[in-house]
Amino acid sequence: MSRVRRLTESSVPFLFVCLLALAGCGKKIWISQYPSFYTPDLKTIVVVPFRNATNDPVAGRVISEKVAAALTANATYEVLTRGDLSVLADEAKWRAAAGDTGALSRLLRKRSRAQAILTGTVTQYASTQERQWKKRPVYDEHDRKYRRDRKHERRPSYYVGYTHIRNEATVDATARLIRVSDGKAIHATPPGAAKVKVASETRNDGELSPERHPYECLASAGDQCVAKLLEEFAVVRKQVTVGRDALRTAAELRDGKWEGGEKFPLTDGKVLVVVKLPPECDRNHFRLVIAHGQTGQQAASRNFTWLRSWSSETGKGFGFDPRQLARKGGGPGPYVAKLYSGNESVLETQFEIQPGQ
């Protein structure tokens, strides 16, 4: 009995830590991430070959071609190719202007429908392989002494040598989007923002070879670097994490904090549904739906577009009249507020409307 009590008591702190960890967990939702500079009237861009600042002679061409292909597949913009531009300007002028964004802007301003130029520099593009001689211990599975008394240290019977291989690749690039009309930068990535390192090494103490060869690490790092650049310049679908309090109800905002919000008398003036979303949700369209918790009868709905300025510790509160909710929802009782992204319900919270006194 005393042993059971000790085990139970010792488990309490552990369970408490687990509950705290769960309380801090959020939920992942899918959104469309818009670059801060993006406007729908920016429709057509051209990707020019990236400058190569590495020792690999193909780095600039490889990354710029990957960027052009990724932007084309993404479809935020119409991406013009070099072939499209060569029709509008003779090859000599194109070659002369290709390395000078100012000259290229002036050339395209007269001859092309391109609105912006994406250019960049590949600053890192390399892969390495390191080999190291190591030894793996082998244990006697029939060590009776070890099986009988586990307080004694288990000693290996012998060692097996093997070559530990670590393949690694690093790719980094910066990029700028230049407006053709005036040659000014619309957006530029900071150094290191797109840097990616990919490694693959011998596993399970030499029994399994690395999953990727050096060139495969390099290809993967290049793709991931391009994906980071794509997020900087195009509208992309991605998952973001929202907090556990991303959707809640409240009675009022007092001293910058939401107060109350689980039970609302029918005579109360307002039910506040509070939404707290990260800035990546800027310009995404959402819909709030409030329905009776038992019958599912809809009581209210509201469409809104999330603004980056709402992404604060406070969030954004949307007010509803509890009397109107009860009238349309079928009377007092339990209610549920759901946040929809498209046709998917991504968040929900429950509250109660109590009969008036």
Describe the 3D structure.
It is a single chain. 27% of the residues are buried. The strands form five sheets. Strands 2, 3, 4, 5, 6, 7 and 8 form a seven-stranded mixed beta sheet that branches. This protein has 357 residues and is α+β, with helices and mostly antiparallel strands. It has eight helices and 19 strands. Helix 2 crosses helix 7 and helix 4 (91-98) runs antiparallel to helix 5. The protein folds into two domains: 29-128 and 168-239, 3-Layer(aba) Sandwich (Rossmann fold); 243-354, Immunoglobulin-like (Sandwich). The protein has helices spanning 2-23, 59-74, 82-88, 91-98, 101-111, 144-148, 214-233, 322-329; strands at residues 27-33, 44-47, 51-52, 78-80, 116-138, 158-179, 185-188, 196-201, 236-242, 247-250, 252-254, 257-259, 263-265, 271-275, 285-292, 298-305, 316-320, 333-341, 344-354. It is flat and about 80 Å long.
